[in-house]
């Protein structure tokens, strides 16, 4: 995740409006939390999670086919393992 945040930080910035619960906003300000940075980190984490879920969904059939192959035939080169 830090890499994704770093890449986003290096790219041009764009102002946007974000609606937050008043109590959460007040607590963040009282604690000196930088709202832009906190929102960026949270959004970067959500993007990474969504990409991971999309990749898993797109590749589920291939992974299942591989698992079925290994279950039926064992691991390739298993005879040469030294452990």
Description:
Helix content is 69%, strand content 0%. The protein has helices spanning 2-10, 22-30, 35-73. Helix 1 (2-10) packs across helix 3. The protein has one domain (2-73). The radius of gyration is 22 Å and the shape is elongated. By secondary structure, it is mainly α. The protein has three helices and no strands.
Which key phrases capture this entry?
83 residues, mainly alpha, 3 helices, elongated
Describe what is shown at a glance.
With 83 residues, the chain is mainly α.
pLDDT < 50 stretches: none
SSE order, one letter for each helix or strand: HHH
Helix content: 55-70%
Residues in β-strands, percent: under 5%
> Averaging pLDDT over every residue, what do you get?
91
Q: Helix- and strand-based class?
A: mainly alpha
Overall 3D shape: elongated
Distance between the terminal alpha carbons, to the nearest Å?
A: 34 Å
- Structural domain tally: 1
Number of helices: 3
* Topology, number of strands: 0
Radius of gyration: 22 Å
Biggest pleated-sheet summary: none
Secondary structure layout plus pairing:
Layout: H1 2-10, H2 22-30, H3 35-73
